[in-house]
UniProtKB/TrEMBL annotation:
Annotated keywords: DNA-binding
Signal peptide: none
Descriptive protein name: LytTr DNA-binding region
Entry's Gene Ontology molecular function annotations: DNA binding; phosphorelay response regulator activity
Gene3D superfamilies to which the protein is assigned, alphabetical: 3.30.450.40, LytTr DNA-binding domain (2.40.50.1020)
PANTHER family reported in the protein's UniProt record: STAGE 0 SPORULATION PROTEIN A HOMOLOG (PTHR37299:SF1), TRANSCRIPTIONAL REGULATOR-RELATED (PTHR37299)
Location of the HTH LytTR-type domain: 373-480
Organism: Amycolatopsis methanolica 239
Alphabetized InterPro entries for the sequence: GAF-like_dom_sf, LytR-like, LytTR_DNA-bd_dom
Pfam families per UniProt: LytTR
Highest taxon in the source lineage: Bacteria
């Protein structure tokens, strides 16, 4: 894999270099430094700082409460909770880091590789730059997640998809303001969670504008390995499903680690109303062919089941879920599919209660949740009160917030994550892709075939579809 790594040019060309050697001496750096001072003092700002950086500052200040005076990254926890089957990923990334480290040595830079929690696994590059980096504990077994060390190339790349640059005073911690960093995360194609990151750091000097594209190309081979592993895991789950399903005609299905349905028998397809022709009936190895159930509380139950099964491969448990509209909750028993001592999926039987019972933690106290939602539009961050949002619409993992100020991309990815923040403010899921502010529903309209639509803005003819699963509860909540 490492033979596919493209050539790396880390230093800007002479024509690109700015006057002065210090990162902090440029006009843009001075402007960002002033914004950082104001923001760190408690002010809210919307312009002058790139949206992805400002969103990171909000996380560091308001959610993670990272001390901006921190000058040394904390050590990482000693327990090794990484999946063994990620070893091939880290081997490939180590090869990329070593090759890149030799190339950046002449430019006074350091290349680092972290796991999905921001724990540094290896560092390569210029020895003098490495010694300087070690003063901040930018070295193996230190933790550079945003939660521990604030805005930085490694930690911030784990929060976002695609390459991320963090230059000078864009770092949350002042001690790192003379570093320029660029990082990229590698994500699990099944769960969307970060598996690892690769980062390049340079002391008191800019990085070439070509570095982000180099990072994207360099890690593409690792993404292919993760995709191959997802297909392998799905085949293992489908094989187990077929063996178990042969002995039962009751509703039965199999899921991957992310809660996506890989296989289901006809009884489960009918129960879940998946539709007639579906690859789920024969088994969907391809991630794009899998189906995500639109069941309230389902993602939390899957997360709980995965955690329990990882601790005990013989585990089984059940939860009551509102599978069928207008009916009582249906029990769902889950058992793990294990390969190489790791959970690769779950087998699920409907109408069965066996093993440990799921106990919902309940919604968080509203006072602990953010009272404003952060969105991104063009080159600025937008701060929204929940009452300003009419509805949220998911486009895969990107969420769009529809407001009086137009469509604004949520800084948080994933509709489930946005939902957790908005439910205490009167929002409800009405469709697998839509979350609505019940206080902003203007009218209801029934379609030709009995479909239900919410009209959120009668002047703009703004329609939100309601799935049959959510229609009864929605009518009850609206009193119609």
């Amino acid at each position: 894999m490492t033979g596919l790594v493209p050539p790396l040019s880390i230093a800007p060309s002479p024509a690109e270099r700015r006057t002065g050697r210090s990162l902090l001496a440029t006009p843009s750096a001075k402007e960002i430094a002033r914004a950082w001072e104001n923001f760190a003092a408690g002010e809210d700002i919307e312009t002058g700082v790139r949206p992805e950086i400002l969103a990171s500052w909000y996380r560091c200040r308001d959610r993670y409460e990272v001390d901006r005076r921190l000058d040394v990254a904390p050590g990482a926890p000693g327990d090794d909770n990484q999946r063994i089957d990620n070893d091939v990923v880290f081997t490939a990334l180590g090869g990329i880091g070593a090759l890149a480290g030799r190339e950046v040595e002449r430019d006074g830079a350091v290349v680092t590789v972290t796991d999905g929690d921001g724990r540094v696994l290896g560092a390569w590059g210029d020895p003098s730059a490495q010694r300087r980096a070690e003063l901040h504990n930018l070295a193996p077994w230190s933790s550079w997640s945003e939660q521990c060390t604030g805005t930085n190339g490694m930690g911030t790349s784990l929060e976002l998809s695609g390459p991320v640059t963090v230059t000078g005073p864009e770092h949350w911690c002042e001690a790192f303001h003379q570093w320029a960093c660029a990082g990229i995360s590698i994500r699990d194609v099944v769960t969307g969670a970060p598996v690892a990151s690769v980062n390049i750091s340079r002391w008191n000097a800019m990085l070439s504008e070509l570095v982000p594209s180099w990072l994207t190309e360099a890690v593409s081979c690792v993404g292919q390995e993760i995709y191959r592993r997802a297909i392998y895991e799905a085949d293992k789950v489908i094989s187990q499903f077929n063996r178990k399903c042969a002995h039962s005609s009751a509703p039965f299905m199999a899921m991957d680690r992310g809660g996506n349905v890989i296989a289901a028998n006809k009884a489960a397809v009918t129960l879940l109303r998946m539709g007639g022709e579906t690859p789920i009936l024969t088994g969907a190895s391809e991630p794009t062919e899998r189906w995500t159930p639109d069941i309230t509380g389902f993602s939390d139950v899957v997360r709980w089941a995965n955690e329990c099964a990882q601790e005990n491969p013989q585990w089984s448990g059940y939860a009551g879920l509102p599978v069928c509209p207008e009916e009582e909750v249906t029990p769902l028993t889950m058992r793990p599919v294990i390969d190489a001592n790791h959970v690769v999926g779950l087998l699920c039987a409907f109408g069965v209660q066996e093993g440990e019972a799921y106990e919902s933690e309940g919604p968080q106290a509203a006072g602990l949740l953010p009272q404003r939602i952060i969105g991104m539009r063009n080159d600025r961050l937008v701060l929204l009160a929940p009452s300003e949002i009419r509805y949220a619409e998911a486009d895969r993992n990107i969420v769009w917030l529809v407001t009086e100020r137009g469509r604004i991309q949520a800084a948080t990815r994933g509709l489930d994550n946005v939902e957790r923040s908005l439910v205490p403010h009167g929002f409800r899921r009405v469709h697998r892709r839509f979350l609505v502010n019940l206080a902003r529903v203007a009218e209801l309209e029934r379609g030709i075939k009995g479909e239900l639509f919410l009209i959120m803005n009668s002047r703009a003819h703004e329609f939100v579809p309601v799935s049959r699963r959510h229609a009864p509860e929605l009518r009850r909540m609206l009193g119609v």
